[in-house]
């Protein structure tokens, strides 16, 4: 194999490597953005006066009372939904700029995602959306909240691994100064129109995590239902991991991925530059040979 062909093969290999690396890098960037949203929400909650905290919680309880009996529609069908109380986006909206009402932590699949108001396409690509016609995720007897997100996106993990969850797994909802713990008690697959499984049940406190399935086909809906087993008030000192440690870990990961991308791009650019130089050099050499050949012919004719 000639040197120029080797360089072309190398360039193609680097292009392929960049394509393969793209999902991982995109996911890291998405996780970084999600972590920033959660951090901003936590800071806002910490600075919120206790009276305002209590008022927000009471507003959420009243909202849940107002949506009792409303129809539940599939969030992935365009145009679905019902008329909502006019104050929906004002409830639990302490972080007004982004509309984050809290965040969900699922240790079994290693995700921590912000929860936004509504289930618009923009929301479902950024984090978890709350289905507006279901109860807000604050618990309470006879409530059933539904939280939805995408899976199998090339740019973010989100609910991609939701099918790995098992009955007995725990997930946590952080809302204001409350930490609500849910234990998975039912996993099912339904048709998009079959929303009976999302209706509230008297004296039960449920949250269902919803996404499309099968992977890449999206013809059905995967439901992972959890029942509340604990609700505690979180104190400022009870942090699992310091903000400094989180930031240091995120920065290290971003530097590593950034360095990998930079190295691949640099190698690709260098390989292309060498190939271009080689091709130009060959053209110049051929041009000189042609000119030399023409001169030789002229001399012979003379």
TrEMBL record:
Q: Which Pfam family would be a valid example here? A: Sortase
From which domain of life does this come? Bacteria
- Keyword terms: Hydrolase, Membrane, Transmembrane, Transmembrane helix
Xref: SUPFAM superfamilies: Sortase
Which PROSITE patterns has this protein been placed in? PROKAR_LIPOPROTEIN
Q: Which InterPro entries match?
A: Sortase, Sortase_C, Sortase_dom-sf
Q: Which regions span the lipid bilayer? A: 254-276
Q: Does the keyword S-adenosyl-L-methionine apply?
A: no
Q: One MF term in GO for this entry? A: hydrolase activity
Q: Cite the active-site annotation.
A: 150, 212
Write out the ranges of the annotated region (Disordered): 281-302
Supply the Gene3D superfamilies for this chain: Sortase
Question: Has keyword Membrane?
Answer: yes
> What name does the UniProt record give this protein?
Class C sortase
Species in which this protein is naturally found: [Ruminococcus] torques
């Amino acid at each position: 194999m000639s040197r120029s062909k080797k360089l072309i093969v190398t360039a193609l290999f680097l292009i392929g490597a960049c394509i393969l690396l793209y999902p991982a890098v995109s996911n890291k960037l998405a996780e970084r953005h999600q972590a920033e949203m959660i951090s901003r929400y936590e800071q806002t909650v910490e600075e919120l006066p206790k009276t305002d905290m209590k008022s927000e919680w009471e507003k959420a309880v009243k909202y849940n009372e107002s949506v009792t009996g409303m129809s539940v529609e599939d969030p992935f069908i365009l145009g679905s939904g019902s008329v909502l109380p006019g104050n929906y986006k004002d409830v639990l909206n302490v972080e007004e700029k982004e509309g984050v009402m809290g965040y969900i932590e699922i240790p079994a699949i290693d995700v921590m995602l912000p929860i936004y108001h509504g289930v618009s396409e923009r929301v479902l690509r950024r984090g978890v959306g709350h289905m507006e016609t279901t109860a807000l995720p604050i618990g309470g007897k006879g409530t059933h909240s539904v939280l939805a997100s995408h899976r199998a996106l090339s740019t973010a993990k989100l609910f991609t691994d939701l099918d790995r969850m098992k009955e007995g797994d725990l997930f946590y909802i952080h809302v204001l100064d409350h930490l609500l713990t849910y234990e998975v008690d039912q996993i099912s697959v339904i048709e998009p129109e079959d929303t009976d499984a999302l209706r509230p049940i008297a004296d039960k406190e449920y949250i269902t995590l919803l996404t499309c399935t099968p992977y890449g086909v999206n013809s059905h809906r995967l439901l992972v239902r959890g029942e509340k087993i604990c609700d505690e008030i979180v104190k400022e000192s009870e942090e699992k991991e310091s903000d400094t440690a989180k930031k240091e870990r995120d920065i290290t990961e971003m530097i590593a991925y950034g360095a990998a991308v930079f190295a691949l791009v640099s190698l690709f650019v260098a390989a292309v530059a060498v190939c271009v130089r080689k091709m130009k050099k060959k053209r110049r050499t051929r041009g000189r040979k042609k000119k030399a050949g023409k001169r030789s012919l002229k001399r012979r004719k003379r």
